[in-house]
Amino acid sequence: MKRLIIKDIEKCVGCGMCMYACSRRKGEAGIDSSGILAVSLSGFERGATVIFCNACKEPPCVQVCPTNALRPRKGGGVVYNEKNCIACGNCINACTIGAIFRRSNGKPAVCIHCGYCVNYCPHNVLAFEEVTAGKATEVKVC
Amino acid sequence: MLSRVLTVDLSSYTYSIEDRGALFEEWLGGVGVAVQLLKENMDVSADPLSEENVIVFAVGPLTSAYPLASKTVALFKSPLTGNLGESHAGGRTATSIANAGYGAIVIKGRSKKPVYVVIDNGKVHFRDARVIWGIEDSLIVGRIIAEKEPGRGTRTVMRIGGGGERLVRYACVTTETYRHFGRLGLGAVFGSKNLKAVVVNGRGSRKVVDRESYRDVYDEIFRLARESDAMKKYHLIGTAVNVNPLNEMSALPTKNLKQTRFEKAEEISGESLAESIGRRIACSHCPIACVHIAVLRLPYENEPYFYKTIMISYDYELIYSLGSMLGIGSKEGLLRLIHRVETYTLDAMSTGVCLAWATEALERGIVSKDDTIVELKFGDCDTYLKAIDYIVRQPNDFYRNLACGVEHAAKIYGGEEFALTFGKNEMPGYHTGYAAHIGYLIGLRHSHLDNAGYALDQKLREYPEPEELVGKLIKEEQWRQVLSSLVVCFFARGVYRPEIVCRALRPLGIEVSEDELNKIGEKIYLEKLRLKKQMGFDVSKLRIPKRIFEVETPHGKLSEEYIRRALDYYAKIVSEV
Ligand code: SF4
Ligand code: SF4
Ligand code: SF4
Asked: Which of A24, A53, A121, B142 could cross-link to A126 by cystine, CB 3.0-4.6 Å?
């Protein structure tokens, strides 16, 4: 299964185009439902990066979800069923990399690896690809 | 619709939120709404550095909805000109305000002690800033606040450094390290209010009324922004690409406009600086990433193998004001000056023009070295670095006066003929012809961005009658009122043509025709002009610096008579408002 991956994080300019795309899927102008966050690295003088679900094979967020609102997704990461979600926020605390965000209604926003945002990253930082063996990020030796 | 207005009162440490749907319906948002809010909240005779001054930040209906709608408009009374102050900044300011659910934020009053204000979605906190008051470097202020406050990635930190605290009348407010409410002294207004910073954190959304057409129009705008020539200039070399062509056509103000060509322009050109680019960054929701950041690696003189590496963002205006205007022909010198001005949160254009005037005043013996403390000399970077420190710290009367701007300093010491201000605002970097200069004089904020006179100069082969030229400038400025009410980045003006603006508004539930848009632009223009008049604006009092007639432009030397006729005509228009 394809998933959202990073091609070259060094090229990220922190524009958040990806972040706006993600909420746009839901007919929102804004970022309430975005499962990806663009941040600076403690100030833009040090550059920028994006934070989103790393598609765990064994997702801790699923493990702590009391209602099965989050379930493992084939190919890594999660599928999210809003109806079951009681907005407990356990998953938000469980994700080691902080890739689950709290929406204004208290429920989580998480990347479901749909690939929509990739088309809006102007600098080819992101890609939507099949990841076969283990690691998504291509290892580059400088 | 984004129509909530947050009002923060620093005197009483209270805040209130009000829905102002009708206001936003009539005036769109941005500058249109901000003018009305300023009128409601501020006495026109308020002293700009007193408790009575009011700051309005406003965003518009396109903010967070479409790419390149990345700007916030700030309106206040300017401590530099004593008249209406308007300044725009990008970074995350606009999207954070919109995502926090506000169309505008009004800040009034004055805190007794230093504070910074945190607006976290629906809540407002007043934080003690006594510990960080006195930190002159805005980068450090930003880092400290960022570590303490929530909202990584979704907040803006608008702050002041030493320039704002010491009430330099052209101090700016810096956000996200490199973006600024640059002109007309908002930083000093912050300082006078004991306001070190305003943090806005926003993570919300608003629902569009038509999801499908929203995505279609979005895609069209996104494609236009990326593919059209309209934005290439900003995407590649950035605004610095202007240095070489302006120099070649004798339009680059050099050494206090004693020259319009700079022998070392090549060295500080966009092409040359591009060799030092260390990284590019973007304002929030902008695919262009026009913010070009150069790397400067400086060795420590007495400590071998120790270096400091600084990242400095540059643009055309900074290269002009701290480069050619000061005769600085070395890339390293220029970058060091930009960095110094950046840390203090000073407006680079005003600072450069002030120093250029001071240098010439010293050359001519109007002021002495007792005044300037250092031997100011065109091309001497180290001396200018010290002088910038003095502008902030103001160790004597001369620097106290220079910190009030060139208009003020020249009134005291003389040298008005070469004091390059227009409407008391220091000159931008285009000596391209009549349209630029008339544009600075009659533009509502005396800025090159009001009406882009410099673009007209480059397009026109022959000048029309001055009256016609004034008409063209006003027309452009009226359309720009629409752009800054929506609010979109002026760099994207080629993308946001009237037709597409109307289509972009529709899925958001706003029906307006091209004709109506133009009418709103006219209306806002008149409202602003009226407000300016009430604050004392008088065309007959506009001073034209003699210097601009003494040097070449691409159209040869300019005649004063033409500009006088233009002003007479404009005075008539103003009197009818
Ligand atoms: S949200 Fe976090 S914990 Fe859950 S699958 Fe993604 S990376 Fe793993
Ligand atoms: S892949 Fe889909 S869900 Fe994940 S961040 Fe992008 S748009 Fe959002
Ligand atoms: S769209 Fe691309 S460049 Fe912009 S923040 Fe997202 S990943 Fe970074």
From this structure: A121
